[in-house]
User: What shape does this take?
Amino acid sequence: MKRSFLTLVLGLTCTCDLAWSQMCRETVTGEECQFPFILIDGVRQVRYFRCTTDYDEAKRPWCSTKTHPNRTHIIGNWAYCAKTCSNNRNSFVPKSLTSSFTTTTTPIPVDPSTLGTWLPNLDNNESCGVDLNSNQIIGGKTAKVGQFPYLALLGYWRRGMYFYACGGTLINRRYVITAAHCQGSTPPKRVRQVVLGETTVGKEVDCLGCSPPLKFEIVDEDVIVHENWDPDRFQNGDDIALIRLPRLVDNGFDRYPQIIPICLPWVVGVSDPNSVYSVAGWGRTDNQPVSKEEIKSTGVLSTSLQFAQVPWVSFTECRKFQIYAGLKRGKHICAGGVQGIDSCSGDSGGPLLAQPKTAYGNAQKDLPYFLRGIVSFGTQTCGSGYPGVYTNIDMYLDWIQDQLQP
Assistant: This one.
C-alpha cells in the first residue's frame, strides 16, 4: 500500500465514543487497532472509526496501530484486522454508530511528519531508528533487507550514468544528512540523486513483495553545506551538510521494507563512554584495487549494504595518533582502531549509530538506533588499526534545526 499525507480543514467527528470504542480492535499481529484514526490523502482528510479496505490492493480490512495525540496515523504502524472482526468498511455497522456522524469545519491539526521541521523522537512516541527486518564496510557483514531503513545513497552524474560515492541518513520525510565533503566544487562531484530504500544495488527490488527504491533528483540549491566547512582543513570539523528532498518521502504504506527516519538525540542523550557503535554503507570492503569495469556496471564500490561494529575511542587516545593531532574537541568522535574493521572510501556521509545504554553501560538492544556521527575521514588504508573520525552530531543539533524548513 502507498500513501501520501497532505492537509484539509474539513473532517468528520463522532459523538458516539462508546459505540466506536466497542468496535472490534483485533489484528492478525496481535496489536490493537487505534480508533478513531485519521488519514490525510490529497484533498481529503478522513477519520476512521472501524477497519477499512481503503488503499489496500487486495481489499483486506486494516487499521492503524499507533497514532499521534491528535489521532493522525503514525506512518508505518498498521496491521490487517483479524478475520473474526466484521467491522470493516463494507460490513454492517450498527445504526447507533452510523447515525452519529456529523460534518464539521473545525481545522484538524496537520500531521507533523509532513513538515520539513519534524523532529521524530521517542519521547513523542514516534517511529524512528528501528530495524524493519521482521522476517561495506571493511570487515563487515552484509545487511538484511530493512535492517537500516534510514540509509541513503548519494549519486553523482558522470559520463552518462550515476556513480554512488557517498552515503547519508534520512532524518525526517524531507531531509537527508551527510558530510559536507560529499558536495564537491565541480559538477561531477556534486550530488545529483538521493536513493532511499536500497539494500542491494542493481536489483530492481530487494525481496519478494518489496517496492523499488525511491529516487530523488537533486540540484545544487537542495544541498546545504555548513558555512564554516573548509575542504582543505578536514580537522577543523564542520563536515556536515543537509539535503532537502524535492518531495516528501511517501512512506506511509509502502510495501516491506518501509523507509523511516533515524532518531536524533533531540531529547534522549546517547553519548556514553565505552560505547560500541555501528557503521553502515556501500563503500569499499577491502584495500584491493577497484575493478573499473565492475564500478561501471553498478555505479557503486560494493553492491551490498555492509555494516560493522566499531568501539568508541577517547578523544585523548585518538589525538595520540600524529595524523589526528589537530582534531577539534567536541566536533569529532573517534571510533574503530580494530585491525581489519573500519569504514572506508564510499562510506563518507553515512551514519555512526548507537543505542541508548543501560545503567551498566550495555546497549539496550530493544531500543531504536540514534545517529551519533557522520563518516568524515580516516587513513588512506582502511582497517589498518587507526580509528575513523566522525562528525559529532551533538555539536550540530542547533545548526540542523536552524536549516530545516517546512
